[in-house]
User: Fold this.
Amino acid sequence: MEFVLTFHQPAEVFEVNDDPVRGVAPMQAWKLYMEAMGAAGVLRDARRLEQFGGTAVSVRNGKRQVQDGPFADTKDLLGGYALIDVDSLDEALKWAERCPGSAVGTTFAWPVRPMPAPAK
Amino acid sequence: MNDGAAAAETAARRSYGRLLAWLAWQWRDVAAAEDALAEAFATALERWPLDGVPQSPDAWLLTAARRQLLVAARRQRLADDPTLTVLWPDEHEPVPDAPALPDTRLRLLFVCAHPAIAADIHSALMLQTVLGLDAARIASAFLVKPETMTKRLVRAKSKIRAAGLRFEEPEPPEWPQRLASVLEAIYGAYTLHWGQVDDAASGELAAEAMFLAELVAVHLPDEPEALGLVALLWLCEARRPARSEVFQPLHEQDARRWDHALMERANEALLRAAAHRSAGPYQLEAAIQAAHVQGRVDGRVPWDGIVRLYERLLEMAPTVGARIAHAVAVAHSRDARAGLRLLDEIESERVASHQPWWAARAHLLSMAGMHADAAAAYGRALALTVEPRLRDWLAAQRLAELAATPRHES
Assistant:
């Protein structure tokens, strides 16, 4: 079963993580976490997202609307995701629990469904 | 909170499992008994503050719950169901006093750990039915979604009803296996959040599990393994006061802060178990714990003896946990490389994401002077650990190994 884990953390956490000195330990924890998922054979893909850089596009009544982020209703920002392939939701939650971001923010586990595929 | 509400709360905590076990045994339907009992507690919370607390709160609750079961059964037009006759006449008879109420909780435990019910739900089912923990709390302890846990519990209870599982103690031929399942589920509940022992919630869960273990041991005084489990849990629990904001391995803990009275009780239980001359995994685990504890007190850990205890344990129950601990004991008793070889013999797919294996490996690599490898192994253990104090400790160990690594290696 595929899941996307999304990593949501408060803005202060990103500040710490991006700091060349204070960020060393947390970034090391993220690196070890990704390595552990890789070694377990569950990691398919993972990317960091520019937490302030997102742009929202919507079309209403034929009019394009563009809005700059951050968009979160809460104070947490989306800073990355990982696509994992595991046997069960329980296992996905276990990896979400181990995420360094879960101790300071929230990790969501989303079951992946197929998108309508383009005709070939 | 007024007296009535307080009395209802106390009765709920003290008697829930006893009342539910009795009702479920008579009704042979855990889910229906739970609903009826919940209804009875709700009524008590309304009535007792107004009418005063009844003479025997348990008897009152039992009557109310039975009435509720009858009402529910009538509503479902099951009046001609033969199981109803068990309860039917009681409506007009005086209810037995609470002290005379037979304790059928052990039977309920046997039903909860029945082989027809998926093993991974045994612990949760016991916590809910015998102790009345709510599904959300159990779900969070088992790290599953509340609705998932609710569904699993409901499924297990329908299975009990549908399969007509017997609410009796098992027959002799199946007895050892059935008892082993009960003990395993209780131990599972205790160890669920062992790493988080200072967390009040996990301490509470540990207390609930110990209550169940003691319940079994009291009802089955001639079962050495039931005593062994109690001894094991008490020995673990006795070390709880020494835990602090900082993680410390057993051999660094301040032994003066251990609960020595509880350890004494554990040792007595272990001796009583040993008198039966029928060793089992829980007795051996408890004996290993006792040896470690004694070693801390004496200042010398009897590693050779611990290795022998693990060898006997592995003959009976070659679990991954026991194999890892055995490897560590061998490393201390003989040499680190012998321990590392034992760790490497464990199938890698079983330990690739198993934190204790990586932590043990790191420890033995460090003993063998392979500091760069030890640092890497501590790093992996760190990534697989959730508990903050243990994380801090592993991170510190990792840094120490990095510092001990000669420059040309790092």
